[in-house]
Write a structure and sequence with these properties.
Blueprint: H1 11-14, E1 32-37, H2 40-50, E2 59-64, H3 66-73, E3 82-86, H4 91-102, E4 110-115, H5 120-128, E5 133-136, H6 141-153, E6 162-168, H7 175-188, E7 194-198, H8 206-209, H9 218-222, H10 230-236, E8 238-239, E9 244-247, H11 265-272, E10 277-282, H12 288-296, E11 299-304, H13 308-324, E12 332-338, H14 348-355, E13 361-364, H15 367-376, H16 380-383, H17 388-400, E14 406-407, E15 416-417
Helix pairs in contact: 2-6, 3-4, 7-17, 10-11
Length: about 425
């Protein structure tokens, strides 16, 4: 069932005719919105809403075709943060159409319905199915702005952001490279606004990998906690692409970086309030704040190389993180730098036996490919778009955002990822 973000109310209570100047509407965060309209009038109103300052951070796409177009579009593609769909049909057909949409809709997607029937019974049925809001035509631009922004400013609305923590089981296993390429895939292939947060303040490489040298970064926030809010953190972000930003580490040794366990909490809260996906590049160390960061993440990816030290460390991390996150998905792990010439390696099957789960993926030893990307300040998909490793990063982005599920594979074969959409409850 599609998640509802608004409390139950009667239709006439939802949208009182309040002049824009007398009403405060909080701006929407960085979200993706797709609208499926049946009339040009509604499409024009939604287009005008997209030009409103309160939706300035949102990415809006409008299509014609109503529910039929929406259901077809998401059979092979992930759903955005918000779907707006217009109906010209009867109430029973509206409910049937929503049941069909729910089968292809990702968990957490909010749905706004535009219809022609001012019917309390219909509205209650829509709320029962998890619809976030119901607007009655004709709708104006302000109606759309109010409805979309209300989804994320309501007292019971959940933060929009999802924290994805990537950490190495051992130093030098390429965890930062994996994190950066996954973030690139989230932004480019899944069209999700994302932020890479480099938490290795003295030695972070995100600035190098994205060919960025921003004057400000995460150090400005962590050393000035009293100033941290969404606006302040937003000013610290460096733009890498249309959908990808960087919260860079200073990578300097002019100070000592000792932090308390809660040092990054306010930064993460501010990012979660405005950004759909936050990829945390967590350094290989075990401190109060790294443990707290991992336990608080929505999903965790441990990157390991196929040797004994990595196996030992990965198992220790998996055990303690599973125990501390009993109600969450278990951490994923990835085998990186597989196939180094003349190096004895532990097989993926032996890793799976020790850790009780198969690796989410295996990435081969490709020094030329990864070295070229690193030296050029590029991602793998930029250096070689058709390389199988670029496709693996795209699939990893799908799995870690809940848009696909990992699929086990026989020992010795590269791990593959299901590309079908995650089945929703």
């Amino acid at each position: 069932m599609i998640t509802s973000a608004l409390p139950t109310a009667e239709p006439e209570q939802m949208h009182a005719d309040v002049p824009a100047g007398d009403e405060h509407i909080a701006p929407a965060p960085r979200i993706s919105i797709q609208a499926f309209c049946e009339t040009v009038e509604t499409a024009a109103a939604i287009q005008a809403a997209g030009e409103d300052r309160r939706l300035a951070k949102a990415h809006l796409k409008i299509q014609m075709g109503g529910m039929a177009a929406a259901s077809e579009a998401y059979r092979s593609a992930p759903t955005p943060n918000v779907i707006v769909v217009e109906f010209e049909c009867q109430p029973r057909d509206i409910l049937a159409g929503l049941d069909s949409l729910a089968e292809v809709c990702d968990a957490g997607t909010r749905v706004i319905v535009i219809g022609r029937h001012n019917d309390v019974f219909l509205y209650r049925e829509l709320v029962r199915r998890g619809v976030s809001d119901y607007l009655i035509v004709p709708v104006g631009a302000l109606d759309v702005v109010r409805s979309v922004c209300g989804l994320f400013s309501a007292p019971d609305a959940k933060p929009v952001g999802r924290l994805l923590a990537v950490i190495g089981a051992k130093g030098g296993v390429g965890a930062s490279t994996v994190a950066h390429n996954i973030a690139w895939a989230l932004a480019r292939d899944l069209n999700l606004d994302s932020v890479v947060t480099d938490l290795d303040l003295p030695f972070g490489t995100a600035g190098l990998d994205f060919n960025q040298d921003p004057p400000q970064g995460i150090a400005d926030a962590v050393f000035s906690p009293e100033r941290v809010d969404t606006a302040f953190v937003d000013r610290l972000l460096s733009k890498c692409s249309d959908n990808l930003s960087l919260l860079a580490a200073p990578a300097t040794l002019d100070r000592v970086y000792d932090f308390g366990a809660e040092a990054f909490d306010s930064i993460f809260d501010s990012l979660r309030a405005t950004v759909p996906c936050i990829v945390l590049d967590v350094p290989h160390q075990w401190t109060g704040w790294t443990r707290r960061t991992l336990l608080a993440a929505d999903d965790i990816l441990i990157v390991a190389s196929p040797d004994l030290a990595n196996l030992r460390n990965a198992k220790a991390m998996m055990d303690i993180l599973k125990a501390g996150r009993a109600n969450d998905r278990h951490p994923f792990y990835l085998l990186n730098q597989v196939g180094v010439p003349k190096r004895p390696e532990i097989t993926p099957g032996d890793f799976a036996k020790a850790l009780g789960d198969d690796p989410i993926a295996t990435i081969g030893f490709e020094p030329s490919l990864f070295g070229t990307a690193s030296n050029n300040g590029q991602m793998i998909a930029e250096v070689s778009p058709k390389h199988e490793t670029a496709e693996k990063f795209r699939q990893l982005a799908q799995v870690l955002t809940g848009r696909a599920e990992p699929k086990t594979q026989k020992e010795g074969l590269l791990t593959s990822i299901l590309t079908k959409l995650h089945k929703k409850s």
